[in-house]
Amino acid sequence: MMVVREQTPSEALAIVPIQFFVPASQQTTTDADFEPTPMLQIEGARETTPETPKQLQETTPKLPPAPTKIHPDAEDAAALLMMARTATYVPKTDPGMPSFSLELTDSSQEGASTQETEREKPPETATMLEQLDSLVQKLASSAAKGKDESPQIQRETGGESSAKFETPGGINQIPDDMKQKCYIWGTRLKEDADGDTDEYEEICTLIGQGEYILMRTHLASLQAKSDIESQIVSAICLILNQKNEKRFQEQIYCLPPDIVSMALSDHPRGEFISPKTKKEFRVEAYPSFIHFIDRKKLSSHPYIFAPVYHSGHWWLWLINTTKRKCQILDPLHKKAPSDERKDINKFTGYVFSRLITYAGGKPLEKGEKEKEIKASYVKISGQKTSYDCAIYVMKWLELIEPENIKKGKYEWDNWTQEEVDHYRVEYASRILFSEMNKQRDRAIRESSAIRLSKPSSVLLSPFCQINSADIETG
């Protein structure tokens, strides 16, 4: 409590309570009669008692509330305390009206007439009031600035998580820790008490020309040092064909490898008469996969990029439908490694020609020449391991520019092995978080629920790169 005199018509004293805060450094004194003075309470500000912040929950991040108590600087508080103790009394001239105002009116009183007849004040009082007014304005300004700068973290529901990835371009903005969680959720196989796993659980349904279903065992093939399943490559083809980019809408069609893979299963050495069915290849023999082909793009786009899988290895056909020219990009070989591969390439060229014709386009060759289609190998830097061929083929679908093939060569900066490993993590989220995935909300929700065993703050660094080998999926 501080006694401040007010100019009144009588000799009586008016006691005006003013509270102010004294810093801890100023509260220690040898004067037994001195008691720490409370905080200077500015009208409109709330007095709160600081509490020890509670432990933040992992699933719902929150910031501690912005402080509402205003603490003046030690120097200002000391000056205010000194002025309060040395103030002298002034006789009152009007018992009901103080001779000064701190201009700390309630907001509801703003706009009302504040013009009062000021009475003459001694210099000491005027100086004290000016300093008080200056201190109040400074503290109020500081509080307002602090309020504006306080960040807010909102609770995120499952629906909001899903909305975060609604645009195709947004997939590149998914945080690395979320990609890691998605990779763990999608590729991890669980085993029950009987020893059975959930490998055949359907966890992704891509909606395109039909419903393309992926099971957990397909995603599990993205694990480190594993051979990638054909269904993963088909899924990437379907996703790329739906991208709203000129490359895929007008120039390049990525042919899903399902029919070609089934045909090579029936014609394992490139025989034109299947040793299994005793029949020639016919597109109609594979009705389960026909509806995944976009006939319009297959028959109209100037280029067809067609992944091929046989005997544990992937390579890529580039077909120029305008010039009827075919080329092969093999991440491991610069030429056909065997005569059997040459026969397989001839049979594969025939299958592509039949598919284009089935879609309404012109065959690559006519008559019996259709079984003699040739494709030259392009020299290109490729894989460094025995199990990354599918990664190269899928990335080449997006990156290869056919016009840059010069004299049978394609010059480019190959990836490091760490980058290749990282793409396995990327492809899991690209498939499961795709807008084409009917089960996308589940993938986001269950991926978000996973707790990372490694510190995840490092993952936010732009210099951090997560590789499939860094993640335990067992």
Main sheet strand line-up: 3-4-5-6-7
CATH architecture field of the domain at 178-188 and 198-442: 3-Layer(aba) Sandwich
Helical segment count: 14
Low-confidence stretches: 28-72, 77-121, 146-171, 456-463
Rg, alpha carbons:
38 Å
What does this structure look like?
This protein is of the alpha/beta class. It has a domain of 256 residues: Adenoviral Proteinase, Chain (3-Layer(aba) Sandwich). 33% of the residues lie in helices and 8% in strands. Strands 3-4-5-6-7 form a five-stranded mixed beta sheet, with helices on both faces. It has a two-stranded antiparallel ribbon with strand order 1-2.
Describe the structure concisely for a colleague.
This protein is α/β, with parallel strands linked by helices. It has helices at 74-86, 123-149, 158-163, 176-187, 216-220, 230-241, 246-251, 258-266, 287-290, 295-300, 339-358, 389-399, 417-432, 440-448, and strands at residues 202-207, 211-215, 252-254, 303-310, 313-320, 325-329, 376-378. Pfam families: Peptidase_C48.
List strands and helices in order, with pairings.
Blueprint: H1 74-86, H2 123-149, H3 158-163, H4 176-187, E1 202-207, E2 211-215, H5 216-220, H6 230-241, H7 246-251, E3 252-254, H8 258-266, H9 287-290, H10 295-300, E4 303-310, E5 313-320, E6 325-329, H11 339-358, E7 376-378, H12 389-399, H13 417-432, H14 440-448
Parallel strand pairs: 3-4, 6-7
Antiparallel strand pairs: 1-2, 4-5, 5-6
